[in-house]
Write a structure and sequence with these properties.
The protein folds into 4 domains: about 140 residues, Beta-Lactamase; about 100 residues, Beta-Lactamase, CATH 3.30.450; about 70 residues; about 140 residues, Response regulator (Rossmann fold), CATH 3.40.50. The strands form 3 sheets. A 5-stranded antiparallel β-sheet has the order 2-1-5-4-3. The termini are far apart. The protein has 17 helices and 15 strands. The chain is about 45% helix and about 20% strand. The longest helix is centred in the middle third of the chain and has 29 residues. It is α/β, with parallel strands linked by helices.
Length: about 475
């Protein structure tokens, strides 16, 4: 508007023109805009202080900062028809030019120029404004990059993604959403309400959750079962995130739905085809609580009970032992593990039958019990202390090493599957820190053991091996054999 008033104004006295130019340029300056004028020869006849400020930020070969700013005037030739035609469309033109700043930075300037005419309507020069649009240009480029990245995510995601208002009107969806909705393309869903795309029960769940979100804010997630447009029964893990306008008023929801229908099957397949470490972990998680159950029942066997209670204990014990056999068979088939006793025969060959069996040991010994399952730890400790031994417990490999540093032990009972540092790693560190021929006897407690385990145990100098769930008589016999061999 200011520019329009300037270029349409009639001839006034020079003083008045100067005053009005100062007033208008002051207003333009507040908006970050500079004003300038040039005659019909392309010579600059006026430039306000803002133009000069911009010119000083530019690098260039010209000593005059304004010459560097208005380089396009140098290309202008008075009377050249092609140059004058640049103003033919309403007598205006707008363009952007890139400049190099004095510090090497890129500066983008936008020019808008108006053709000026004399009393005879002939070309008299130009009036123009200039604005530094570098910041807005960078913002536009950043937004364009984010738009492209969003497009990549939306296009390649296998999750169903939708953006909708609070009434369920769709603004944007991806291909996965369109596929589940039975639509030809994402574009065909835009503008529709979800009632036109999803089953009624699904729509009710979605809209109810959106309504709750408008009250609570933030995000929400839930699992729903639906039948898709192809007749497939599916289960979706749905997450809704509320977005608001600049005043914080809820405006819509971004929804992401992941098909989890095949998670159980895929998990089973993963276990079947997984490395041995995963099978070991599965074996530990199944056998450890089972060992605790059997151990607790055997403790009850030694307690005076009523005939009815003793009958229930025997039934539970029989069922637990049968379950143990099933688990052992299943895990053995799954991993190809050796049967119980394979390690004992292997260690016996390696040690040339150096272990001797004899009568029961009547001495009291210091025993370090490493077991991460609390129920198994309590039962084992009760047994060992009942036999007169001093027992200290550890729940992981780190605690084992701390205990070994604090005092010496006559025996270490070591579980293999433990958090932080497992049994093998702890044994290796114990052996590395031992000096001479004085090595603490270590008995490994494990629910499994294949040839690679036995080889590792042999290399680490394991004294013996007992299989979980541990039978009282087997543990007692093992300890007696070890302690009597030291005499």
């Amino acid at each position: 508007m200011c520019l329009y008033l300037l270029v349409r104004s009639k001839k006034k006295s020079a003083a008045k023109v100067d005053v009005r130019e100062v007033e208008y340029t002051a207003v333009l300056h507040l908006a970050g805009i500079g004003f300038y004028k040039a005659d019909r020869e392309g010579r600059l006849v006026f430039a306000d202080d803002f133009c000069k400020e911009v010119g000083r930020t530019l690098g260039g070969i010209n000593e005059n900062c304004l010459d560097n700013l208005f380089l396009h005037f140098l290309k202008y030739t008075a009377g050249n028809e092609s140059d004058e035609q640049m103003f033919s469309s309403g007598g205006k033109r707008c363009f952007e030019s890139d400049f190099l700043g004095i510090h090497g930075e890129k500066i983008n300037l936008r020019f808008c120029e108006q053709r000026l005419t004399g009393d005879d309507e002939s070309f008299a020069g130009i009036a123009g404004v200039v604005q530094n649009v570098s910041a807005s240009k960078k913002t536009a480029q950043a937004l364009d990059l984010e738009r492209k990245l969003l497009e990549i995510v939306m296009s390649n995601s296998t999750d169903s993604i939708s953006v909708q208002d609070l009434e369920g009107n769709l603004f944007r969806v991806n291909s996965a959403f369109a596929r589940h909705a039975g639509a030809d393309s994402p574009d065909s869903c835009v503008g529709l309400n979800i009632r036109s795309c999803l089953p009624p029960k699904t729509v009710d769940l979605v809209l109810d959750d959106i309504e709750q979100l408008t009250i609570s804010g933030g995000t929400d997630s839930f699992v729903m079962s639906v039948t898709d447009s192809h007749g497939n029964d599916c289960r979706f893990d749905v997450k809704h995130s509320l977005y608001c306008d600049q005043d914080g008023k809820p405006e819509g929801v971004v929804g992401i739905a992941r098909n989890i229908s095949t998670d159980n099957n895929s998990s089973y397949t993963e276990i079947i085809s997984s490395p041995s470490e995963l099978v070991d972990s599965l074996s530990h998680e199944l056998r450890t609580p089972l060992a605790g159950m059997i151990g607790s029942l055997r403790v009850l066997e030694g307690i005076k009970l009523t005939a009815e209670a003793k009958d229930y204990v025997n039934k539970c014990l029989a069922s637990s032992l049968r379950l143990k056999d099933v688990v052992n068979t299943f895990l053995g088939d799954l991993s190809g593990r050796s049967k119980e006793g394979a390690f004992k025969s292997a260690i016996a060959d390696a040690e040339n039958d150096c272990l001797q069996t004899s009568g029961n040991c009547e001495q009291n010994f210091r025993i370090l019990l490493a077991e991460d399952d609390i129920s198994s730890q309590v039962l084992m400790r009760r047994k060992l202390e009942g036999w007169g031994h001093f027992v200290r417990t550890a729940c992981n490999g780190v605690e084992v090493l701390d205990c070994i540093k604090e005092q010496s032990y006559d025996l270490v009972l070591m579980d293999i599957q433990m958090p932080e540092i497992n049994g093998y790693e702890a044994i290796s560190m114990i052996r590395d820190n031992e000096s001479g021929t004085s090595c603490v006897p270590i008995v490994v407690m494990s629910a499994y053991g294949d040839e690679s385990d036995f080889k590792k145990m042999k290399e680490l100098g394991i004294t013996d091996f007992v299989s979980k769930p541990i039978r009282t008589e087997v543990l007692k016999s093992t300890l007696d054999r070890i302690f009597n061999s030291e005499d």
